[in-house]
Amino acid sequence: MAPNVSISFLVVAWVLCIFMHTTNTVNAAGIVAASQSSALDLEAKALLESGWWGNYSNQSSFISHHCNLSGIQCNHGGSVTEIDKGGVYLGDKFRKFNFSSFPNLVRLNLQETGLRGSIPLEISTLSKLTELDLSWNNLTGDLPLSLTNLTQLVEFSIYYNNISGSIPKEMGNLKNLLELDLSSNNFTGLIPSSLVDLTELVYLYLDSNQINGSIPPEIRNLKNLSSLYLGYNRLTGPIPSSLVDLTNLTYLSLSSNQINGSIPPEIGNLKNLRYLSLRNNSLTNSIPLSLSHLTNLVSLNLGSNQINGSIPPEIANLKNLSYLSLHNNSLTGSIPLSLVDLTNLVYLFLDSNQINGSIPPEIGNLKNLSYLNLSNNNLTGSIPLTLSHLTELTYLYLDSNQISGSIPVEIANCSSLVNLSLSHNYLTSSIPSQFSDLKFLRSIDLSYNNLIGNIPPYLININFNLSYNSLEGQIPTFFQNHSFYTFIGNKDLCGDIKGFPPCLPSSRTKRQLKIVVLLTIFPTLLLLGYFFYSRYWVRKKQSELRGIKNGDLFSIWNYDGKIAYEDIIEATEDFDIRYCIGTGGYGSVYKAELPSGKVIALKKLHRLEAEDPTFDKSFKNEVKMLTEIRHRNIVKLHGYCLHKRCMFLVYEYMERGSLFCVLSNDVEAMELDWTKRVNIIKGIAHAISYMHHECIPVIVHRDISSNNILLNSKLEAFVSDFGTAKLLDPDSSNQTLVVGTYGYIAPELAYTMVVTEKCDVYSFGMVVLEILMGIHPGELLTSLSSPSSQHVMLNEILDQRLPPPNRLVAHDIFFVATIAFACLRTKPKSRPTMKWVSQEFLSRKKPLANPIMYSFTMAIEESRNLYDGRE
Ligand SMILES: *[C@@H]1O[C@H](CO)[C@@H](O)[C@H](O)[C@H]1NC(C)=O
Ligand SMILES: *[C@@H]1O[C@H](CO)[C@@H](O)[C@H](O)[C@H]1NC(C)=O
Ligand SMILES: *[C@@H]1O[C@H](CO)[C@@H](O)[C@H](O)[C@H]1NC(C)=O
Ligand SMILES: *[C@@H]1O[C@H](CO)[C@@H](O)[C@H](O)[C@H]1NC(C)=O
Ligand SMILES: *[C@@H]1O[C@H](CO)[C@@H](O)[C@H](O)[C@H]1NC(C)=O
Ligand SMILES: *[C@@H]1O[C@H](CO)[C@@H](O)[C@H](O)[C@H]1NC(C)=O
Ligand SMILES: *[C@@H]1O[C@H](CO)[C@@H](O)[C@H](O)[C@H]1NC(C)=O
Ligand SMILES: *[C@@H]1O[C@H](CO)[C@@H](O)[C@H](O)[C@H]1NC(C)=O
Ligand SMILES: *[C@@H]1O[C@H](CO)[C@@H](O)[C@H](O)[C@H]1NC(C)=O
Ligand SMILES: *[C@@H]1O[C@H](CO)[C@@H](O)[C@H](O)[C@H]1NC(C)=O
User: Where is the Protein kinase domain (predicted)?
Assistant: First the structure.
């Protein structure tokens, strides 16, 4: 290979010489050009040999076009000045790069390219480098001293790696640095005092390391500093008062260290601050009044310290505040009335202090408030009715106080409410029935109060805790899967839940029972595959039915013309239990090997329905339609048998059973690696999209869950069980009873009972998270609503039985997760359509930065940009 290369160099050089000659240059110039071009060829050759651009079979073509390669910039003379491979996996090909061949390189971006091992010392030969980005990799070892020879550097980023050791004091040589980002590594030792020589610095990020010692007072030299992040280290000692000379600071974070002493009163000098976090340190004394001079502050976090005294009323000057957290301190006194002037507040956390007095009714002025947490204080008085003005409120925590009076029905006007906690107070009223209007409510905790009256039925599909109150009456039957502890400690509750006495029938409970019976029998009927069109149809077909003899074999679809009823009876020895492979509410599933050798699955339905005369042709028609569905990710229904003695459906057999079973089994779950999981998700999306957008009438499955996704021998996904599917006929009412599997049902179904395609989209979102996590996300979703989960990283919730995904799959996983969050939006309209989801999966996305380190909040944020609710 090598000889070929050099021959082509000569050819190119020679061509260049001829060119130079013919454009009226003297011989001498030709020679200069030739030597220049051979230097250029060296660059091209180094690029070729790096393998970063794949294997080029036509090397001469590569060499003559190297300035046109993706990520390469050359200067006018044709010498390489910029290399940008950000987001492209290089891995160990990194080591093949000949750094010494690029004397003119000014910019090298290798962000997120899968680099590992130590930083190559040769990098220091790039003497003209002004920008070096090695972030989002897995580099280890120390920061090499030779790196500090790159004195032209203006920007140096190496965040999110595993670099250890201390920061060399020679970093102080890099006098031109404007940005230094060493965050999220394993740096130890002190902040070198030489760092304060970097007087041009505008951005300094040292956060998320293990740096100890105190903040050097000389930091005051960094006059141009605009962002200073020192959080998540082991810094001790006080906040140096000299810090307040950095009047250009806009962002200052010292959070999660062990900084002690008081907040310097001079902090009021930092007039440009927009973001200040001193959270999670050991700061004491009171909040300095001068803090109220920081009128540009948008976010102020003093949480988790030992700050005492009361909240200064002057805090009301911080008119731009959108985020205010004073949580987990030792604050006393009452909530200052002036606080309600902070009308831009979206987040207000005053929880876990010793604040007393009552909640000022003027809090209703904070119209933008979305998160309000006053829990774990000494608040008294009643819940102000004005809270009902807070229509943006999603999280309201008033628990663990001494609040008395009733739960105001007006809270039902807080139409965005998702989480409500009023537990551990002295509330005495019934649970307002108006809360059924809170369409987005996902979790409600009313435990440990003195609430009276009955349990409202609208709590279906909501996580709730009603324990330790004075509730009475029947526990609605559809709560029977809830834990005993949800209801424990009440006065007179009865029902079918273990630990409670059965209810004595009274006229009232009889009526309730009737409803309950209807609620349970109807889904069973629907589960059977009975598609309820309208009364008209039923009546019409009833009359047609009379002509059909009871006991007739209605139909059996020919499976390649080879299935006969008798074959099936024979193959299963008349449905002997030995052939049974699963049981559900609808009936049992059998495996049958036909005489032809074909294996099929039989779903034998319960007998009850066969005796129902309305079980008519419409069933047959719908089943027939399902047999006509042709999609590679939908289980094929070959036919059915409807007979007085037995009814069954004939399906394609899926060797690996349900997704749920595979995920529940540690060995099988390991077999389902990340790539397979992503493919399963895509398959399901395509199948549902087909049902929603390519079938006429539209088919809404209504019971998408991991139980109803089957896997074949290659672990490919097939949507199955159309037992509850509803064909959306534009003329028919879409109103129906709630069917589906608890934990996958779209929230709106609980109150509107209107089935749309968006219900399936929601269930799909749940299944996607379940596939990524290995278990149903139920509790996680609720806990994600709490502010403390903002830092839950995506990789922490991924199925831990599998090794972490490599970076390439990680892109897919992050993308799939953001889609899932879009599908799980509470408002059906803002969920994407399955067509859109399916198309997104088909079109390859540009990779994001290292996705797996992203927090959940980021995935949710990202999902906001995905689909704006329009088709
Ligand atoms: C490039 O060539 C090497 C060695 O011939 C081979 O191992 C590698 O798979 C090739 N890469 C591509 C992308 O073709
Ligand atoms: C290589 O590329 C050059 C220029 O692009 C072309 O002239 C030549 O024919 C190619 N050689 C081969 C073997 O394809
Ligand atoms: C590089 O690309 C530009 C435009 O894309 C083109 O004009 C130029 O001729 C190309 N250069 C070479 C050496 O291929
Ligand atoms: C980084 O490298 C270390 C040690 O080489 C390894 O244990 C770890 O799994 C790697 N991390 C990633 C995300 O590749
Ligand atoms: C700070 O920034 C200003 C304007 O951007 C610049 O003129 C000055 O040289 C920088 N350095 C110092 C040390 O002030
Ligand atoms: C502060 O920043 C501004 C630009 O935002 C700059 O013009 C000024 O020079 C900086 N001040 C100092 C003291 O560096
Ligand atoms: C608080 O800071 C300590 C280190 O001082 C850290 O270990 C802990 O994780 C931090 N807690 C939070 C909630 O950030
Ligand atoms: C702060 O902590 C250091 C030890 O890290 C201790 O020596 C010092 O006395 C403390 N200062 C205050 C004001 O508590
Ligand atoms: C707050 O309430 C707790 C428990 O009721 C009590 O021990 C504490 O003294 C109270 N604190 C104040 C400041 O009132
Ligand atoms: C039923 O839902 C379909 C699809 O969402 C819609 O087109 C139709 O208008 C709805 N019908 C009624 C009566 O609401």
Answer: 575-842
